[in-house]
Amino acid sequence: MPLSPEQQAEIDAQRAQSHQTLRATAPGMEQHLYTAHPVLDHGFIRVIDYMGDDEAICQAARVSYGRGTKSVSNDEGLIRYLMRHWHSTPFEMCEIKLHVKLPVFVARQWIRHRTANVNEYSARYSILDREFYIPSPDHLNAQSVVNNQGRGEALSGEEADRVLRYLRDDAMRAYDHYEEMISDDGQQGLARELARMNLPANIYTQWYWKVDLHNLLHFLRLRADAHAQYEIRVYADALCKITADWVPFAYRAFEDYRLGGATLSGKALDCLRRMLKGEEVTQETSGMSKGEWREFEGVIG
C-alpha cells in the first residue's frame, strides 16, 4: 500500500494532535484514528471519526442519562439481549466515518449497502492515479462449477501467467490512452468526465463512508462471510478488527449471534427435530431443494 509522502505527513500530523472533549471516547478506537490499514495491493481503510461506544448502546436502550445505574456486566448482558432479539435502534446511536481506497469493481459491490453517507473521489474534476488491483496468483481462480457467483480452483501454469499478463497490459494500455485523451498538449483534450469511461474496473478510487453501527454490522455479516467475494471480504475483515476494538461487547455479541450463528427455515427446523428423534432424513424427504439441503448440511455439519 504505497502512501505518498504528503499522505503520510498528513496522517502523522493528525495523530500528533490531541483534543479535549467531554464526550465519551473508546480507547481501542483512539488507537485506530487516522492510521491507514493496508488492504489488497494498493488499498487501505482508515478511521476519520467516530461517535459512541458500548455504553452509548446501553444508554439508548435504557433511555437513561450518564452511565445509568447498571454494572458493566449488565451492560454486556443487555447488548447480548439486544443482538439476540434483533433490536436495531440502540446500535444506530454509534457511528463511524472511514476513508477507504478500493478498486472500482469492489466499490460497486460496496455501494449496494445504501444505508450510509458516501462521498467519492470525482474523476470528473480530478485525474485518477495509475494504480490497479492485480490479483496475486493464489487468488486467480476459475469459475465455480456449483455456484454461479463464486470461484473454483486456482488457475495454474501458462493460463495463470497469460491472464495476469492480460490484466496488467490491458490496464496500462487503457490508462495510457486515458492520459493521451485528456492531454491538452497540441490538442483540445477530451473532458475528464468522458475520458474516464475508458478506464478499467480494477483502477482504484477513494471515498469517505459514514455509517451507523447497526448498518455496519449488517455490512460485515454479509461481506465478512466466507461466501463473499475475496476482494471485498478482506476490507470487511479489516473492519471487523477495528469494530472489535471500538465496541468490544457489541462485537462479541455480533460474532456469536451473527457471524457464528445460523438462521434455519421452518422446513430446516422440522428436519432437525426429526433427526433428533432418530429419523433418517434425506434431501428427497426433507421438502427442501438441493441447494437448500446443501446449505442445511453445511450448518449441521
TrEMBL record:
**Any idea which residues are catalytic in this one?**
223 (involved in ionization of n3 of dump, leading to its activation)
Family per record: Belongs to the thymidylate synthase ThyX family.
Q: Keyword set for this entry?
A: FAD, Flavoprotein, Methyltransferase, NADP, Nucleotide biosynthesis, Transferase
> Which Pfam family would be a valid example here?
Thy1
Q: Does the keyword RNA-binding apply?
A: no
InterPro entries with a match to the protein in the record: Thymidylate_synthase_ThyX, Thymidylate_synthase_ThyX_sf
Its annotated pathway?
Answer: Pyrimidine metabolism; dTTP biosynthesis
Which reaction equation describes what this protein catalyses?
dUMP + (6R)-5,10-methylene-5,6,7,8-tetrahydrofolate + NADPH + H(+) = dTMP + (6S)-5,6,7,8-tetrahydrofolate + NADP(+)
Native organism: Poseidonocella pacifica
Q: Quaternary structure per UniProt?
A: Homotetramer.
Q: Which PROSITE patterns match?
A: THYX (PS51331)
Q: Which PANTHER family does the UniProt record give? A: FLAVIN-DEPENDENT THYMIDYLATE SYNTHASE (PTHR34934)
Cofactor binding notes: Binds 4 FAD per tetramer. Each FAD binding site is formed by three monomers.
Question: What is this protein's function per UniProt?
Answer: Catalyzes the reductive methylation of 2'-deoxyuridine-5'-monophosphate (dUMP) to 2'-deoxythymidine-5'-monophosphate (dTMP) while utilizing 5,10-methylenetetrahydrofolate (mTHF) as the methyl donor, and NADPH and FADH(2) as the reductant.
Cofactor list: FAD
Binding of FAD occurs at 89, 112-114, 120, 212-214, 218
**Which GO biological process annotations does it have?**
dTMP biosynthetic process; dTTP biosynthetic process; methylation
Which EC numbers characterise this protein's activity in its record? 2.1.1.148
Q: Where is this region: Disordered?
A: 1-21
**GO MF term set:** flavin adenine dinucleotide binding; NADPH binding; thymidylate synthase (FAD) activity; thymidylate synthase activity
| Enzyme class of the recorded protein, top EC level | transferase
Name the UniProt record assigns to this protein: Flavin-dependent thymidylate synthase
The record's SUPFAM superfamilies line, in alphabetical order, gives:
Thymidylate synthase-complementing protein Thy1 (SSF69796)
